[in-house]
Amino acid sequence: MVDPIASYSQFKKRSDSPKIYQDARDILNHVGFFEGTEKLLEVWLESEPDDPLVENIEENIHVDNEAVTSKSADRSIWPSLRLISEEEWNHILKHYAKCTVLSVISNDKIDAYILSESSLIVFDNKFILKTCGTTTPLAALQPILTFARERCKLSVVKDVFYSRRGYTDPFAQVSPHRSFDEEVKYLSGLFGSASAYILGRLNGDPWYLYTVDNYVKNQQADQTLEILMTSLPSEIMSHFILAVHGTAEEMCEAVGIKSLFPTFIFDLKAFDPCGFSLNGIKGQFYVNCHVTPQTECSYLSLETNWPEKDYTEIVKKLVTTFNPGNVLLTLFVNQSSICPNSILGVKEDDILGYKRVDKQYCEFSNSYNVTLLTITKPSFKL
Description:
GO terms for molecular function: adenosylmethionine decarboxylase activity. One of its GO terms (biological process) is spermidine biosynthetic process. It catalyses: S-adenosyl-L-methionine + H(+) = S-adenosyl 3-(methylsulfanyl)propylamine + CO2. The chain has helices spanning 4-15, 18-30, 86-97, 141-150, 180-191, 234-237, 248-255, 312-322; strands at 39-46, 101-106, 111-115, 118-122, 126-131, 156-165, 194-199, 207-212, 223-230, 265-270, 276-282, 285-292, 299-304, 326-334, 355-363, 368-376. With 382 residues, it is an alpha+beta fold. An 8-stranded antiparallel sheet has the order 2-3-4-5-1-6-8-7, with helices on one face. It has an 8-stranded antiparallel sheet with strand order 10-11-12-13-9-14-16-15, covered by helices on one side.
């Protein structure tokens, strides 16, 4: 993996202009605040004649079943959420979640959309909507479920997971995301019986989780690693300034993110004046990475369902590359995965230069379990 600090020093030397380095720092200091923290919504669906979990949802969006797209004409993947076209996703997200589709890559298992604020990953039977800023992904749930029922013939909500870390600026959020209590109330109004959890320190770096009460075990192997980094050094975040690296490919090459997933197909996006998004797919597996580089709110997230028995090496490489002050990591697995016990999935003692702040483990009725791990540099204060 490319050493980003050395790479940036080489860039300075090649440019032979110390003003470029100073301008990069100025950009990070003066672009202004942006909420990098993402709201992560994952919904599993299946096709059944009855749909008890969504029977109370108002059908407040009209689905034109006469508008047949190239995907909806392909009955070989029916029923499937992938029948929803890019244009339809963009319409839903723009009007309800307050974000838009920028690009998409696909294979025979997944459609992966880069959004103006993070990512949307769509499988046949589930979608993962991850949005940052002041977006409102929960407000998009009703229209998405209506499309799923009427267009895709997926009428039963099998599992719902909604999670996020604490906002940097919670007062900037809008309904239904002004607090976790409001989010839980909104979701419970849709799905009824559910459970809400807070892991981590309430006076430090809490992580919030909502899930429906489901006693049916998911037989499909499933595991998700999410790494959330804050307090990142500006010399590394400078790689994600468009004036420093003119393309998203150059940004990505400078820090070596793609080398962690060498056989994936990638879609990259650089934002002006700064910021970066990545989606990668291989078969039924995905990875996404999003960077908010501003000094006052630096943030980087990486999420993947790539299966590993032990994610320690991936975590070590990311931490070594980006050198964050604080790392909040969650590993969500079910008993069918190759890592059936999440607490064994990361060995924090092997991550040199960091100390463990918290490590918490929780089991759920639907065969899933999750581990939250918070590590920091010794000098970092929560």
